[in-house]
Amino acid sequence: MADALPSECLMFDRGVKAVRSRGSNAEIEFENGDREVFDLVIGADGIDSRAREAVDGGESPPKYSGIRIVFGCTPAGSTARAASEMNIAHQWFADGAYMLVFTGGGEGAQNKQHNIALCVQDKTKRDENTAWRAKAAAKEEAVALMREKGMPQSAIDVAEACDRFFDVGVHYHDVLDSWSDDAGTISLVGDACHAMPPFLGQGANQAMQDALCIASELSKVGAEYDTVKQALRAYEGIRKPPTAAIMQSSRFIGALETGAGPVSLFRDVAFFMAGTLGITGKVFLSGALPRFEGKA
Q: Which Pfam families does the record cross-reference, listed alphabetically (predicted)?
């Protein structure tokens, strides 16, 4: 994709400090002090988006969900899981916790990496964007947390084999009133406009659908739309309803999966019935279905 663009279209190592609407155009101020003006800025700059701040005035920062996720990853070729399990994802539920163990990587056992994801309720606010940690203390903390939650030894064995850990707080965005500024010179896609918890696995999928939809609607300027602003409103009208619904579903499922006390008892019964009746698969499939076209 990069090769299809003129070289001057791609700029690297230029952090964005601020995005501002200037009426007929938009300005980006870079961290090195440079400023450049563009006809249209599309912010795909993540949950802490500078473009979002320009659209909503910084009035809707990310919110902490009260859920913490500890990810772990083994080196390639680890034998922490049996070969017969490499195509199977295992999950466990406990009081106030949920855990997933799965295997990914390239072809052949020597390229496979085993992964853990431990989700727990944690009211201590944690950062959304943190770095992988390869320290012994990270492993000890993860294993201790798993033992505290009563996770099985087979899952703990995988954690013991991990050499990197990633510990994050789950954040999300409330639904914005508008995804673009009043002048139609700044718009948003992906986590910049609808960061959602990961419990339906839809963050990247929805961002790609946003990108396809906004490109499609902008291509109609001069034909179906008189202005860029009209195209941006059409894009928002197509994409906001499904992303808002998926975000709320992800929040609900995350709270249910990590529920404690009576919530965990309800969860166990509800998930058993949902799995038996095939409802679980339909929920995940519904989230994954593409929704980037307007109604005919």
A: FAD_binding_3
